[in-house]
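TL;DR need structure tokens for one chain.
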Amino acid sequence: MNKVGIAIINFNSGEFLKATLASVMAAKTRIPFAVAVIDNGSEEAQCRYAREYLDELAASYPDAELEFVDAGKNLGFSGGNNVLIKKFMEDSNITHICLLNSDVIVTDYWLDYMLEKDCDVIGPVTNAAGNEQTIQIDYTMDIQKLDVNAVQTFAQKRHTSYQGYTVETDLVTFFATIFKREVIEKIGLLDEQFYPGSYEDDDYCVRTINAGYHIMIARDVFLHHFGSGSFAKLNMDNRKNIGNINRERFEKKWNCKWKDRTWKLLESCKQDMDFLLNGQKTVWEKRQLDTSLKELENLMADWGEAINFFTAQADRMAASETNYSAKQLVKLLWEKVKRKFAQIIGRLKSRWNAFIHKKENERKKKDGMDRIYNLIEGAGRKGHKAICVFAPMYNKENEKDGYVQRIKAIDTTVLADMCRIYLYDEGTVCENMRFDYIDELHGYIVFNSHNKEQLQEILKLVKACGATYTHSLLRFMEDRTSRELWQIFDEEGVTNYWDVHGTVPEEYAMSGSELGSELANTIEKVMAEKVDVIVVVTQAMGRYLQKKYPAMKAKIVVVPILNKELLKPERCTKDFGKQKLDIVYAGGTQPWQNIELMQNVIEATADTYQYRMFVPDTEEFWRLWGSRKAVSLRVESKSPEDLYKEYETCDLGFVLRDSSPVNYVACPTKIIEYLKFGIIPVLKSDEIGDFVALGMQYVAYKQLLEGEQIPEQKRMQMMEANYKVLEKLKDMYVDGIQTLKNQVEGK
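>> reply
TL;DR here they are.
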């Protein structure tokens, strides 16, 4: 029969060691074992405490093999264990050696369960290991409130649920690791250069794999690990220094960079879920799954705090012009992390719910799709063609958003006589397809394109309708949508319309997101070269896309951004007898809005003009204000209706965008609103869409800084010229809407 030698190091471990030894002796096991404790230069009282407790155990367990060794000095983790390994190797009956930390609670049959796997090197799972051995627990534990029963109960449940489950790995941490005797005979002892401890386990695992042996994790064996029972006695600075020195030793020895394994926490969750999803489910197992998902979400939150910290530090750095700042690098990292984590969490949730409710979900999906096809068929009998619209459905809650306003404008004009099935790809967050039926011409489907069955239903629907209208390439961005959904652009007999809305890749780049920009460029190229009709908001946008994608064959249709209020013929009456002109801004606080420049102008000219700022986030506006001097300034949030009332008494309006591709092709609703209400735009760059080309009059922001006055007569002339620009935009809008309408109706 196998016999295991259990090696334990004591370094001022105190109550931790006592708890460990007590659990070893109390745990049920069929396999014989011997325990040896070596004291690694503890304080005299601590050494005496350990020896005396071992004597107590010997008296309570007279048949047990227990031995205490006093090293007399700190030999380090490797040195102390090597003394005990050599001692155990002298006993020919010992077939396995276990390195056990002095801060571990072992559980019933732990040795039996691990040895029955017949592995070269094997370790259990635990609550604290810093790699894929770490799992989430459903109990609390500290050395002052020791509840061994809670650990035993959890371990039993764990074994029952994951019985026989092992995974191969390239590293186990040596808090509780069992080695076959032959492995040690061939590889040798631990490397004592990693003094006093850390990276010796990394080193030994590399040596194990290089020797042709395999390392496994017994995912059905759980031991509680308090963590750093001995190393916690060192101060934090010393622990960091030890870690840095030993990492350098490891990297020098193996001529490689050490790889952080924190990310393996995610791998642990995945391994457990893969196993659970392939077997029978109990309430406890479901709770375990939910706990793992919650932990992933917590990791995201923790990383968010870390990002904020590093970003704050980076703000204090003077980054060179030629290198990335730490802030930029951290932002790139965090963007990637968020996207990856969101995908993992979404997919796992989807898989779990699909498994549990498969039959019910299938029935709901069938009923939902049947109703959609019945809707299309019923509309067809009344002479209405069908079209799939890739966009969120507008409602009272989101109708204030400019993006949604565009959807509604097209819906109520171009697509007014068509049966519209709105398709919203929610990505992996969507567990099951959801359906809504607005009226006899409106259907709404929320789906997950990463789910192959759902994807096939959508592709089938697109084929049946014969046409798609996509609002912005954001609907097909790869960080949420699967690449497979792009197949719609290759379906024969389907006419695809793409309403561009804006230059998404360039907007991502302006916000500092290179990854987002890269993704957007990828799908933009696909769409530009494959869709049949491209709807743009400016002529400049059309020219920009044609230059960017010479292979583009799509028909270009220009439809400026106008709503019903802006299409009304009434003109705004202005008061030209003011002592101070009112200057307004209505919009967000994004970087491209140049809020800080705007605030500089306000601070410098507060005595000359009256200012009204209408922004969604007033706190952010004042945060950006910083240490500027206090001035008389209104900063509020307003609904569109209330905003229009404010416009009636305003004279000038800020649009301080930089000269950039985003600006060249834009059709800001803000400018059109200014023109409608007789407000003269204040610009930084005049390269904004088609406005100046159409004859728009404006004021440069530097004119305000220089104290230049705008005579009433001049303002009246500028307003008149701008009303003519607005009329041209209206004509362009009406022509574009009619062209599109004829196209989709086949006229």
